[in-house]
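Weekly structure sync, notes
Attendees: PL (lead), two postdocs, one rotation student
Agenda item 3: pending single-chain targets
PL asked that the sequence for the first pending target be pasted directly into the notes so everyone works from the same version. It is reproduced below exactly as submitted, 1632 residues in total.
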Amino acid sequence: MWKNRGDIFSASSHLINVPMMNEAARLKTAKSIVFIDSEVGVDDKKIHDLGAVRNDGVTFHSASIHDFCTFISGSEFICGHNIVHHDMIFIKPHISGGINGKYIDTLYLSPLLFPKRPYHALLKDDKLQSDELNNPLNDAKKAEKLFYDEVNAFHALSSQQKQIFCSLLYQFEEFQGFFEYVNFVPYISNVENLIKNEFNGRMCSNADVTLLVKHYPLELAYTLALIGSDDYHSITPRWLLNNYPKIENVIKFLCNTRCDIECGYCSNMLNIHKELKRIFGYDSFRTYNGEPLQESAAQAAIDGKSLLAVFPTGGGKSITFQLPALMAGKTIHGLTVVLSPLQSLMKDQVDNLSEKGIVDAVTINGLLSPIERSEAYERIASGTATLLYISPEQLRSRTIEKLLMSRNIVRFVIDEAHCFSAWGQDFRVDYLYIGDFIREIQKKKKDKKPIPVSCFTATAKQKVISDICEYFKRKLDIDLELFASSATRENLHYVVLYKETEEEKYTALRSLIEQKNCPTIVYVSRTKRTHDLASKLTSDGFPAKPFNGKMEPNEKIANQEAFINNEVKIIVATSAFGMGVDKKDVRLVIHYDISDSLENYVQEAGRAGRDPSLQAECYVLFNDNDLDKHFILLNQTKLSISEIQQVWKAIKDLTRIRPRICCSPLEIARQAGWDDSVSEIEMRVKTAIAALESAGYIKRGRNVPHIYATSILVHNMQEASHHIDHSALFSDSQRQNAKRIIKSLISSRSIAAAGNDDAESRVDYLADILGIEKDDVITSINLMRQEGLLADAQDMSAYILKSDSQNKSLQILDKFAKLEAFIFSQLPEEGCTINYKEWNEAALAAGVKSSNVKNIKTLLYYLTIKDYIHKVEDAEKHIAIVRPSMNSKPLYEKFTRKIDICRFIVGELYGKIRYNSDDKEEIPVQFSLVGLFNAYKEIPRLDIDKSSITIGDVADALLYLSKIGAMKLEGGFLVLYNSMEIKRLVTDNRIKYKVDDYRLLDEFYKQKIRQIHIVGEYANLMVRDYNAALQFVQDYFQMDFRKFILKYFKGERAKNIDRNITPKKFNQLFGQLSDIQSQIINDNESKYIVVAAGPGSGKTRVLVHKLASLLLLEDVKHEQLLMLTFSRAAATEFKKRLIALIGNAAHFVEIKTFHSYCFDLLGKIGSLEGVEDVVKNAAEMINNGEVEPGKIMKSVLVIDEAQDMDEYEFALIQALIHANDDMRIIAVGDDDQNIYEFRGSNSKYLRNLIEDYGAIKYEMEENFRSKSSIVALSNAFIASVSNRMKSSPIQAVQNESGTVEITHHISERMEKAVANHVAKTYQSGKACVLTSTNYEALQMQGILTQKGIRAKLIQSNDGFKLYNLAEVRFFLKSIDTKLKSPVIDDTLWAAAKKRLAEVYADSACLPNCLNMLSEFESVNRVKFRTDLDEFIKESNYEDFYSNECEAVYVSTIHKSKGREFDTVYLLLKNVYANNDEEKRKLYVALTRAKNSLYIHCNTDVFKKYFIGGIINREDTRDYDDPLEISLQLSHKDVVLNYFKDKKETILKLRSSCKLGISDSYLSAEVNGRTVRVVKFSKAFSEKLEHLANKGYEPVSANIAYIVAWQGEEDADESAIILPVVRFKKFSSLLSD
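Predicted structure, written out during the meeting:
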């Protein structure tokens, strides 16, 4: 219903308060015009509101379309912002009879009439600036103001410009109404001449304007407007480029395409020589031996060609692309994008330009603060930057993509272009995405003509050049024009000095620096060495600064500036130094370590003599070992196929139910079982993902947080500010952020997009543009949702399995809550150093049954990312330094509040589940953070103060549930922690990442290997022949690579350069192996290998060399390799041999006993106690997924003595196989030597690897140890054992027969006969008497000693643990009293050893203890206290007997396994060998002998063997019992409680001290008094009585061991004595 004018219509001309020019004012009164705007629903596409204002000032605001049509009827013109393609599209269908008014669209007029910065105040791209929403009347008034300003702007144009625009645009609906309004119609037929005259000197005079007028009149008009702006920083709006992409082509055609005639414009604006002088001040381009390489490449870029330039270091590469970029910025207002992998180089180039007064360049990289990044984005968007430096990784940012779409992209410049090629020295997988990105940009810009590309590299072989060209041809159908110089740097002189040692190197370095006394760069290969060498030079009077890529940015810049400004003359650097550094007076470059490729060497050496007039020298201080270091470093840093397979498996596991996931690189690394403390782990994960993407297994998203700040609920900025200022939810900084965010949202609402531009409301875009951290943006958005400024959005999801239950999630929560409470109870406010295994054991002891190291690390990870604690970790040693970031009380309050909220969330989300029959296995539940917060606040609670709960607390609880695995959550704020989006394309779980997929990376790594060999060959050649070395370098870069190899690496040498090792090292490691040993070591294809290794076949040697091969030749990293043994002594021996073979790299290899490894998995300190179920429990934990993936994800598992596995050890192997799809196994053992069946060992498990898993079997049948007669007897004896694995008998390698003598006795008492035999035959060498029992061994030692023969007993003691030995405890106490950190420093270690040797100088146990410490030192470069504990607890006393060559050892057969002796005496009393186990035991005894074997037996066990060369004897004597016997007493033989009050007294005694015997006691002399120190137990007293009945009486005793003991109910330990008691036969005593 109509109301009077004062109700619906009101005068509003006073709102237009900017004075108008006369022409606009005149037209306003002369012609009727109405300005309109509509509010159209985004989803329903219906008109919700309308606004209008007429030129007489009357306004309209209503949702009634009928009233609206009545209001605008009769107007000659209808004007609005984007009305042609938006408002009228929705209004027309509702108008009956049509509208007569002509349309005028201010959107399309704006770029034409306001092409120059700062543009119009009301405009922002295609939007009208506004601080109010949903008010079409307000926007209509803004359109009115804008329109009259456009009218005035049009009339301010020259008459020629007016006529040009009218002639070009009158035909278009968007413009015709405007020209009629201003009374302008086309009246000149030849507009082409008009254009050329008007824009003379601002575009090419010879351009074919007629063509443009005919085919692209609209694009031409906009281009001319921009050209006429006379401000090269002004740009075409993004929306206009999107709608009319040919504008870019038109401006290039007019302003950046040289004519043949060289008109005034082209000879001036497109003249590279004039612009070189104007911009950079240089008179001419640099040449190389007369070659105008720099000029030619720059001109090609100006001409729009794509090119590849190979410039030597210092060759002026930067100017070659900067000059065309700056010229294009000026001529066509374009942007050049420079892609570089080095952040520091980008910054340096921008800074260098800035110092020259050129401010057109900007970089966006990770070194920028949010504010700096925001300013950089603004400069790109506004047009004030014409050069943008970014890394290839940033092409995945949607913000970057949006910015590039808003600009006229002139060219992509790719620096370090060799990164495209697997044959280059620095292949990068992320470079392979560049072509895809450029193609996508071209497609979105609807430009069929490709964007030109410039590729630059300092050094490139022919194959690299070919690869780069082929890549761009394949991806973009671009042909690259090549610009390369064959010239060499004439002012550089190269010298290689061969130096044998580090001392020689340093002396030469110091001498050269002193002689030359000039700015010097010293290159080294390791970051640590930059600091060490710079410090050493400085202390020697040569001030030097270090420089490496891992230094803090500020320190790097300071050191670089100090060198450039000659504050120091010497900089010690890795290859990271020098790129982009322009210091012309460097006259000396010294490679302390040679580079890893000729490419890098030429680049680095080329940093000398940048001034061509200076002569400079380049020295290499060379040693072949330098190459080995490069090979080791390459192996550590390369990404192997097995690692990519592990990442692929991790992604398959993570996408088991949904093909799309959002996660962080760190989470993928942990899922893949990678050590998350490994250097650059995120980059390694991203590289693996890029490789998988390149092979088509996955598709990586664009790093986009799917969280939007949409649905604004306030009407204007004033209302929003009022709410924010009066809300208690916001802190001061949050208020400021919230206002900036909502102002951006309101002002950016696009009329063209009907108020829906998701891109500009996305979190990452807001963060980038406003310079606010992403988490602060998300916090502000959630607070504004909570306050009601933004509508709540259910942007989070919980994914719940049908099989899951609320109870299951709560159980997981309770499990972690108990463990976290324990952690807080153990964490002092000042912080502490924690040992994960010790904490886990303490938690288990405290009743936290769910504790394991994996869960402890998960909780500490959560606490760290929430900044509740600060943590510095040493993952290799299972320790971390942890310090709370707040007091314990608030920390614990946060914990209790978080757990309560978690319980609520679990119940709330499970309550939202709505099951449908068609649901898949996983059910998504949508929710919002604000919704959860409000729901939690509504529940009445007395025990928790709800008023203190914040939305941040709910976010913390959700993150906690996600990280502990109680619920699978995605979306919302969690994008901060899950930055990567991955979509799985290959859904078949059986499909693996294949060798063919790895081809490119594999080729790159092979090339890296060849490059190291080649640079080594150069160094050796330079020592011999200077000119030949220079020719070698020239040939390397110019010849076909295959021809180059044929020329310089003939025959066997061609194979050598494909090995990741020098020929010298290869021969050292693998040159002396037998054929079968070589086959085993060279087999890198078989997944499972079983080696049946006979005695003396070199099993240990093969295993050690195989470990070396795995590490050096087979791409296996130390953390991916696991070796399991059955004793700590064996593990130590392998580690020692490996260190001797390959050096320090061996220290990082994990060689453990089964039990030690399982203790690791369980999170406990390893020992020989409590081992009963440790292997069984560990296997179960692996199968239950309760073990840290990093502990079990291995590429290769090596098993020593695999025949000794029992069912639980084999179950562990099976669990590891199940957890590692692609894990290789190498199991070595000898079923004939399985002598531990009594404890469950069975060689059938070794056979199972062959029968069940298809392992390849190798048989090592050569015996290098024993003489032929010994081997013959051993073969004959073992032949009767059933089910043997070896198909052929053992072959003796030695031709000598040796001595085998078998003495058959009738007497059981053979000890004396054996002793007599030893006395008669033993002359020298290492000999051993082997017995069946400990008792026999003890008696043999006593008898031999009586005969004056030095006998050493190898036996263990029942119940005696090495860790409890007094000497060991004394040493540990000496350490612990002064230990200040987890690591025992060398000074403390040496002092403790010295103190031990002094205090226990008289102890018989001292040599074994010192041997033990030496063994620990040899395999532990860094001596961690916990490692020492584990080493001792896992070792036996007998492991550390000195390996004397001139001694007779006495041992049981079991203890002799793994040892060898020149001569063996075998005492076999009542041994019948009736079963296979007994036969295998004797076989072990026989095969210990190298040269001579003497057997004494009283059974027929050897009578059936008639072998030539073997002597059989009969001894019919009946020997008496020995006159003397000795007994080693154990814990059972003494009264333990007797020692409880004697600790101080006993600790004054030493092993070997004499003891007196009195009845049931032993006494010692202490401080001049005789003191009883031992009381015999009842059991031993009965033993004494038994011996007395046989005529034996105790005659002497001494202390064997003093050990610690603690009864179950005792509070303290006691010191106890375990003595040896000697007896003599009674008749012997009488005769004496």
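Discussion points:
- The two ends are 143 Å apart (CA to CA).
- The chain has a mean pLDDT of 87.
Action: rotation student to compare against the earlier draft before next sync.
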